[in-house]
Design goal:
Two copies of one chain form a homodimer. Chain A has helices at 15-27, 73-83, 95-105, 121-136, 153-156, 188-205, 233-241, 264-267, 294-303, 314-329, 332-352, 382-394, 419-435; strands at residues 44-46, 49-51, 57-60, 114-118, 140-144, 172-175, 210-216, 245-249, 274-277, 288-292, 357-363, 366-374, 379-380, 397-398, 400-402, 408-411. The longest helix of chain A has 21 residues, at 332-352. The relative contact order of chain A is 0.16. In chain A, helix 3 runs parallel beside helix 10 (314-329) and helix 12 (382-394) packs across helix 13. Chain A has 436 residues and is an alpha/beta fold. Chain A has a seven-stranded mixed beta sheet with strand order 4-10-9-8-7-5-6, sandwiched between helices. In chain A, strands 11, 12, 13, 15 and 16 form a five-stranded antiparallel beta sheet that branches. The first copy, chain A, has two domains: 40-68 and 331-435, Alpha-Beta Complex (Aspartate Aminotransferase, domain 1); 73-329, 3-Layer(aba) Sandwich (Aspartate Aminotransferase, domain 2). Chains A, B: This is Aspartate aminotransferase family protein. Chains A, B: Keywords: Aminotransferase, Pyridoxal phosphate, Transferase. Chains A, B: GO terms for molecular function: pyridoxal phosphate binding; transaminase activity.
Chain lengths: 436, 436
Amino acid sequence: MINAFDSGKLDHLPDATAALIRRRERVLGASYRLFYDDPVYLDRGEGVFLYGPDGAAYLDVYNNVPCVGHCHPRVVEAVTRQMGRLNTHTRYLTDMVVDYAERLTALFPASLSQVMLTCTGSEAIDLALRIARSHIGAMGVIVTENAYHGVTTAASELSPSLGDGVPLGVHIRTIPAPDSFRDDPETMGETFAAHVRAAIADLKRHGAAPAALLFDTVFSSDGVVTDPIGFIKPAVAAIREAGGLFIADEVQPGFGRTGTAMWGFARHGVEPDLVALGKPMGNGTPIAGVVGRPALFDEFARRTRYFNTFGGNPVSCAAALAVLDILRDEKLMENAATVGAYMRAGLRDLAKSFERMGDIRGDGLFIAAEFVSDPVAKTPDAALAGRVVNELRQRRILISASGKAGNSLKIRPPLPFSTEHADMLLDGMKAALAAA
Amino acid sequence: MINAFDSGKLDHLPDATAALIRRRERVLGASYRLFYDDPVYLDRGEGVFLYGPDGAAYLDVYNNVPCVGHCHPRVVEAVTRQMGRLNTHTRYLTDMVVDYAERLTALFPASLSQVMLTCTGSEAIDLALRIARSHIGAMGVIVTENAYHGVTTAASELSPSLGDGVPLGVHIRTIPAPDSFRDDPETMGETFAAHVRAAIADLKRHGAAPAALLFDTVFSSDGVVTDPIGFIKPAVAAIREAGGLFIADEVQPGFGRTGTAMWGFARHGVEPDLVALGKPMGNGTPIAGVVGRPALFDEFARRTRYFNTFGGNPVSCAAALAVLDILRDEKLMENAATVGAYMRAGLRDLAKSFERMGDIRGDGLFIAAEFVSDPVAKTPDAALAGRVVNELRQRRILISASGKAGNSLKIRPPLPFSTEHADMLLDGMKAALAAA
């Protein structure tokens, strides 16, 4: 795992931190891993800041879940109000789930007019897979080579970024992700589509067939690839020619983070068949879902009984509705565009005098800075990226790394991030680069 | 689906209800189904009552999720306080997840000393399957013939109650559930174990092997089977003889509902290898998890990276901690034992003059009343059960039905259910039986 704490190294940590880690390791399964060489102990959050029990403030430039800011009072109030009034499931009639579904689907193209709500992005991906596979009558799914789509059995079988310990499914095919730092922008889209076609051919050669092409529309875990706009079109066309569906994983880019559009697919001018939503949807309250074409949902419902006990509960919907209100009222998508552009320009300035920061890319407040040991050969340098992440942490600035080689910084703050906050990051980055 | 509304029959409904159903059908996927011939429109909940927008009060004798009562003020307060303070994930250190994990695991046998937290029971079952299958190195799972274990791809493949439209997995074997109404109590446990052994033999005959025996320890969807105490022991021994694990699905019986013990497996004096928890855990706040033996978690972590973004977040843990406090302070397990016994006695009295209510069974506040067309032949009568459910709904008492034939009433109220509430149910039941 990128940026993982080695639990053998407790000795140099503050006593309170080490003591809590020891308690954690006794009662939580060993899969629980901490970030950083020096893990961050948190007690409080507000806006784009997190605070330790000692009052130390950390600038959050990493967390996309609290998209409208940590502990936003309007979300807290909406949840408190609804929790004190009614929290039940969708086999009774309640206003809240319908109000939210109407508001949410209004943000999509007309063809994607219905939603099914779950609690996590993993559940949303898993449901989208069930719908697509049932519709096509085939199990094949094509994903990128460092994709991450979730932790259910089915989602993990098509999440190669989880590593060799998690076997890919028999009918899963991986293809190289687009790489705007190394590929020719003129041909990148066609190359990606050619990989899709090759995977389709390979599935067919094995007597299988593709149900879907599934990718994150900003390729987060493949290192963040956003441009050129429209480059995903040929790949989407290729899966449709073969009779398969295109499932957009919007768990990362969704809800305005890219600044350019509410959804990553919309930036590129394509319409998916199914869209999986997650992380930022409820600002931390567990809610996720699948938006899609009614014909697909109708067919699935005819064949299959599906009910998600907590999915669409009024409290989660109240949180999610407040998020939509805040995104609109505080113009956070617009802010993401402005501040993101400012931050990328600042990072590019820094890169001029630090040539091993070889590429700055992204859109809005989803930014990657890629480190290389040789700027000409573009050789990935994960160790350097890791040192920068930990140097920033020592300066109380939280980010992480991403990509197949783990050599790209992942810069992805809560959306109320201002140019002042960007300056704090840029100052910290300058010092971190000097020290790393 | 049992007790489902037929969406073609809108005309006889109140205008506001019909209007909301029409809006719902436009924006929610067709899988969303409502209960009852006359769906219930809800606006508010408190304790064991739910209220419509018109103020009409419904006695809730069905919902197990709000286990400490609808909108319990201590849960609302705990969530409000934590949401305004910090909500983040487990890759940072926070107190709340450790505090909760310590409190939760203290309620288990010493061998089951660790937990991994998820958001839903489906995710918990799916994770338990991943751990078991990875440990054993085999895919086989044995479940009961009308089992329900969740809606992820992997969970649905071993949930035969979802119907023929959801194919069982290749290595899933179903066995007849125990049936305390028809089986000889002296041999029921051995018969159940013999079915387990036969399924193991069949898996082996197909070149496969059993990873686990998985069942709900009160067999909720098989019609609720709780007695005789200890009858599951031979089946658990059978899977272990074959080298497989026993996974207890405690999503339904867990957290004291049976009155006799905190967990269904504990009633029977067995120790599972893994335990899946869900629904009542956070009183409606999405939280679930797997409790198990540390050696299993250690092995899984060595092989597999697993992280659940919302799993173990401080807000969900605060809700779950409040639930444990309330269960203890309000002595709700003890209440379940007392009121459950009172209710079963009252139902048995009613059955004396209504012999088609052929069996009353269960423990604590998990009770089934089984309807038959012929009390001697014990022929299931689902239509009668359905009429009773709808007659009760007309009297504003909410229950549902269960079992392979759908002929058993499922009586499963929030735990602060008093003898006065039981009297309301019994009066309503008497009238419903007369009218059905």
